[in-house]
Automatic annotation (TrEMBL):
Organism of origin: Oesophagostomum dentatum
GO MF term set: 6-phosphofructokinase activity; AMP binding; ATP binding; fructose-6-phosphate binding; identical protein binding; metal ion binding; monosaccharide binding
Pathway note: Carbohydrate degradation; glycolysis; D-glyceraldehyde 3-phosphate and glycerone phosphate from D-glucose: step 3/4
Catalytic activity: beta-D-fructose 6-phosphate + ATP = beta-D-fructose 1,6-bisphosphate + ADP + H(+)
Keywords for the protein's UniProt record, in alphabetical order: Cytoplasm, Glycolysis, Kinase, Magnesium, Metal-binding, Transferase
Record protein name field: Phosphofructokinase
GO terms of biological process kind: canonical glycolysis; fructose 1,6-bisphosphate metabolic process; fructose 6-phosphate metabolic process
Pfam families named among the record's database cross-references: PFK (PF00365)
Residue ranges of every copy of the Phosphofructokinase domain listed in the record: 2-226
Cofactor(s) it depends on: Mg(2+)
Length: 270
């Protein structure tokens, strides 16, 4: 439980030959399929579900355990790994901030992972007190750059600390870190601001999993197998995401709730 990463290996590849997958499941007498992964795992489960009419071997329970630092799996609020990544991102941003405080006229652009999901960037900005988060869910334009320059110069004039921007890697290619830096320098007519870029890359995935991710991984594995073993919860050929979201209503027909002792876990039917 103290080791992160994937012991079995991982690949971001959708099922290309469903027929071969069905043959393998049939040959090995597989009666249930547990997929651990991010959005690609969710998408793969959907592909297998949609092919059930063509291949009887796919008419087995399929459960997806969300596991992605990007926290981008539909149907759940928490994916394994996202808490570990968030803790590491905050630690690194704090370290960067300690050095950047010496530059009162600085703009710090920090890029984090997350693909098209803005979860890491938005939550990291809130947790570290950053001035701006840039995510793909919001349209970012030249006017936003002008506002950043205006706000950054205002902080400089007030003698406050540096201006920090947390940018998600999944934002438009038009606004790469370098493009954003160049735009800020171009709009800073009086050359009041120095702009630095830090791309955290894979280091932000962290080393050992956080305590939260460890216990969540264990609990999700237990409840996934309970779903396989209890036909009343899964049915003979259901396809679900093992999810956790406190705001869901347990009365929804598309969501099957475990007993209250499960801690709010749900099987979200695809």
């Amino acid at each position: 439980m103290s080791r992160g990463g994937s012991e079995l290996g991982t690949k971001r590849q959708l099922p290309a030959d469903v027929e071969k997958i069905a043959e393998a499941l049939n040959d090995q007498n597989i009666e249930g399929l547990l997929i651990v992964g991010g959005f690609e795992a969710f998408h793969s489960a959907k592909i297998l579900q949609e092919a059930r009419n063509s291949y009887s071997a796919l008419n087995i329970p399929i459960i997806v355990i969300p596991c992605s630092v990007a926290n981008n799996v539909p149907g759940t609020c928490n994916s394994l790994g996202s808490d570990t990544a968030m803790n590491e991102i905050c630690r690194q941003i704090d370290n960067i901030g300690q050095d950047a405080r010496g530059c009162r006229k600085g703009v710090q652009i920090i890029e984090v992972m997350g693909e098209k999901s803005g979860y890491l960037a938005a939550m990291a900005a809130l947790a570290t007190g950053a001035d701006r988060a840039i995510v793909s869910q919001e349209n970012f334009t030249e006017n936003d750059v002008k506002q950043i320059v205006k706000d950054a110069i205002a902080k400089v004039n007030e003698g406050l600390s540096h201006y920090t921007i947390i940018k998600s890697e999944g934002t438009s290619e038009t606004w790469s870190c370098k493009r954003l830096k160049d735009a800020i320098k171009e709009l800073d007519k009086e050359n009041q601001l120095s702009v630095r870029i830090d791309v955290l890359c894979h280091a932000q995935e962290g080393g050992s999993p956080s305590a939260f991710d460890r216990q969540m991984g264990l609990r999700k594995a237990i409840y996934a197998f309970q779903g396989f073993m209890n036909p009343r919860k899964m049915g003979d050929s259901d396809c679900c995401v093992l999810a956790q979201c406190q705001s869901w209503s347990r009365r929804s027909a598309s969501r099957i709730a475990f007993p209250s002792s499960s801690g709010g876990f749900l099987l979200y039917r695809l």
